[in-house]
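writing this on my phone so excuse typos. first protein, seq and then structure
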Amino acid sequence: MKNYKINFIYSLVFIVFSLFLISCSKPLPKNYSYRITFMEQEQYVEPYPTRIIITQDFLRFDDGENSQDYILFDRSNNVVHSVVTEERTIMSVHPKDTKIKPPIKLDLTEKDLGEMKDAPEINGKKPHHYQLLVNGKVCSDVIVVNNLMPAAVKALTEFTELMASDSKMTLSSTPADMFNDCDLAMDTFASTRVFKFGFPVQTMGRRDYARTLVDYDEKYKLDKKLLELPKDYKQYTVQDLREGKVKFSG
């Protein structure tokens, strides 16, 4: 029995290592340009579209063609810019090197609900359904397609990691009775779990939130002006805002 367990462990290690080599043997594309459109739904809010443009150096969020306000993630410099046209401002968010630990226990587990056999194929594959749990409670359902736009998954993971690092900075000002285990995990301490199994084509979770993939274009003809920042806008950091250093006109 002891030898059987040892052999099983060795076999498992070999399988995991082999999968790792396979994943590494497929390099991410270069000079790619993706356009991804989601439909998002929140409690008390009418459904709205979100367009995401992804390149090797940038990631942009907006609400579609002719958007005036947008979020631009400069991947080369690892900084997020939020552009508000009406106020003519650019607020920047930088990664925070913090060792802050969760203020409450967060036991993270996942439940594999299997392939969605009745769903249509995407990129030649059936979507797969997972549930993300915190402290034994389902916090989010995510439906993914493995190996769909892995470069997009990487870019979205980088963005999510940066925003989660900044989120940690707000914990000290949050009353203890306001902490929610799902929120702490999904927004701050385990925010990238949604990308663990592949590209999320649908996410459903807290407070009736849902995000559903509507369309995507892996050969998007990009207008490079979409990846530029206005040159004459007032610039400040999110930390400046928190410290009351920002004065708005009007």
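second protein below, same order as before
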Amino acid sequence: MTPSNTDIAPSGLEPGSRMRNVLSNLPWFYIVAAALVLVAGLISPNLLQTYLLLLILRQAAPLGLAVLGQSVCIRLLSLDLSFGGVAMVVAYVMTSGSVDLPVWGLISFCLLFGVIVGSVNALFITKLNASSVIVTLAMTMVLGGVVLALTQFRSLGDAPQLMRDFGRARVGMIPLPVICWLVIAGAMAAFMRYSTFSRYVDAIGANPRAAIASGLPYIKVMFAGHIMSSLFAVLSAMFLLAFVGVGSLSLGSDLALNSLAAVILGGVTFGSGKGGVLGPTVAAFMLVFAFNFLTSLGLGEPGKQMAQGAIIAMAAIAYAARGSRT
């Protein structure tokens, strides 16, 4: 007796077909990332040394934290472009000496500031129905102007010793900031997979009007999403400051656009949430890896800026392509 198809593959798909389906659902950026690593290995094999890869991971940690907050906003059909302004304030508070508090007090002050910024952003977006792009971009400009005015009286200086020690600390060969980043990303992934908040985010992102009509706490979720984003912006700025060791007005100026590109390239689209945390995390690392690869080729800052523009354009194309299929 000849076996039927159901006898061969009870699930309806042969193992090869299931594997093809899994691969087809992966963000296409994974393929680009693998190709980039292959090319880098052929042209600049030193970049694939363990020590340099760990250094690149440490450089990617601030962006990796920023994408965690940006991904929540994007899943809510919103955006957060206030990362640059938040980073400037964090740099000023932590390095200028204008706030007379111990290190942990300064950190707590910055976290509280992040809560306030996220709340103000969400207030304008939800109560006044304002564009998240305009609101958060205006927030960056206001915060940047305030810090620029304050630096006329107190200039930026060195980061606190505790932060610099944190930036240099290692557990074995692995930098401590990398461990902290991956632990936070893992906790965020679990939270966004199993929490009720995550289901609210998906429902609101998919159809805000229907979610509001069905009684979902739209305003509370939007406030929570933007507060989370601003808190991750504060953490990202602190990791950057620990890595650089000195305050700067340009600290984190490219976090907003790079985090937006990494989130979209990592598979998260407006309102869908596909890709979760893993995709944007991989994309954040690969962006920093690509910038280091360009530096190794001697292109430096001009090449980095060209690459940033090209990558953001690719992210926009990827988003448009996914949107046309839904």
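Residues 1-11 have pLDDT under 50 and may be disordered. thats all i got for now
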